[in-house]
TrEMBL record:
Record family assignment: Belongs to the small heat shock protein (HSP20) family.
One Pfam family named in its UniProt record: HSP20
Protein's name according to its UniProt entry: HSP20 family protein
Species of provenance: Desulforamulus aeronauticus DSM 10349
InterPro entries: A-crystallin/Hsp20_dom, CS_dom, HSP20-like_chaperone, Small_HSP
Lineage: Bacteria, Bacillati, Bacillota, Clostridia, Eubacteriales
Span of domain CS: 38-143
Amino acid sequence: MSLIPYEPFRHLDNIRREFDRFFTTEIPAIRTSFSNHFGNPNIDVYETENEVVATCDIPGLEKKEDVTIDIDNNLLLISGAVNKVNEMKEEHLHRQERFFGRFQRSISLPTRVSSEGVKATYKNGVLEIRMPKFPSDTKKRIDVDFH
């Protein structure tokens, strides 16, 4: 019989691995379904040499007052409301999957952006926000006073 050192958390490692496996394989499909129903729109963020770009799926916006975009330090906050297109009586409704109501999404940006020069466009249900990167050329030579 071989002796194995006692590791009190060995069983928790197995549970953690199972949780990791479950959340990486099965939750994205559920998350997509839930996010559309609970007002948490899907968003992609990428950066180019000069800017950070965020694209967000928000079908159903009718006018620019329906969406608000705020940038605070490295945080992008998108919020607003999608109005119900047509009123249906509840007793005639068989299925309702299209989102309407308030939505909000905040996401950390990968680098500092300037709030000046931000451009937002909405086309075919997709909101695109282009944010110029904060100038990283902050190198400054300091003169030394000699007395």
